[in-house]
Design a protein that fits this description.
The chain has 160 residues and is an alpha+beta fold. It is built from 4 helices and 5 strands, in the order βββααααββ.
Length: 160
C-alpha cells in the first residue's frame, strides 16, 4: 500500500502542510487535507500525524462540513421520492441548524476527546449554542479505572 507523504511549503511566517487523501469518488479530482504550523519541526510532526490518520482511514477532508457531507450523500442515494422528501425535511429542521456548518474535522476531534474521556472513566459535556461558541466540560476521576486512588495525593504547586 502506498503511503501518502504530502508536502510542506513556507508561506510568510507559517508553514503550510498538504497531504493527499485520494480522489473524490464523485468529481474524480484529487483531495487534500490541509494544516499549518509556525515552525518547520511542528509542520513535520503535523504532516506525520495527518499521514498516519489518512493511512488508517480516519482523516476527513479538512474544510468539508456536515452539510457538504449530507448534500453529497443525498445526491447519490437511490431513494423513493417520498423517502427523499421526508429525509430533506428532517435534515432542514433538525440537523442543519445545529450541525450543518460544523467541519467534519471538528466533529472528529470532539469524538476523539469524548472517547478518551470515557476511557478514563470520565464524562464530557459539550454545549454549543448557535453563534455563541462552544464550551467543553470534562469531569475526570482522580484515579483511572482499575487503579485505586492514592490516599496521599502529591502536593500541588500551592502546597506549602
Amino acid at each position: 500500500m502506498r503511503t501518502p507523504r504530502g508536502h510542506i511549503r513556507r508561506h510568510g511566517n507559517r508553514y503550510e502542510i498538504a497531504v493527499p487523501v485520494g480522489r473524490d469518488p464523485i468529481t474524480k479530482r484529487y483531495r487534500y487535507v490541509y494544516d499549518s504550523a509556525s515552525t518547520e519541526e511542528e509542520a513535520e510532526r503535523r504532516r506525520a500525524v495527518l499521514t498516519e490518520q489518512i493511512t488508517k482511514g480516519r482523516a476527513p477532508q479538512a474544510r468539508a462540513t456536515v452539510s457538504d457531507l449530507i448534500d453529497r450523500r443525498l445526491s447519490v442515494a437511490e431513494l423513493e421520492l417520498i423517502t427523499t422528501v421526508n429525509y430533506q425535511s428532517y435534515i432542514e429542521r433538525v440537523i442543519r441548524p445545529v450541525l450543518g456548518g460544523m467541519q467534519l474535522r471538528e466533529i472528529q476531534n470532539r469524538v476523539e476527546v469524548l472517547d478518551r474521556t470515557e476511557a478514563l472513566g470520565g464524562r464530557l459535556t459539550i454545549v454549543s449554542p448557535p453563534g455563541q461558541g462552544t464550551r467543553l466540560t470534562a469531569e475526570l476521576p482522580l484515579s483511572t479505572p482499575g487503579q485505586p486512588a492514592s490516599a496521599d495525593p502529591a502536593p500541588g504547586p500551592d502546597h506549602r
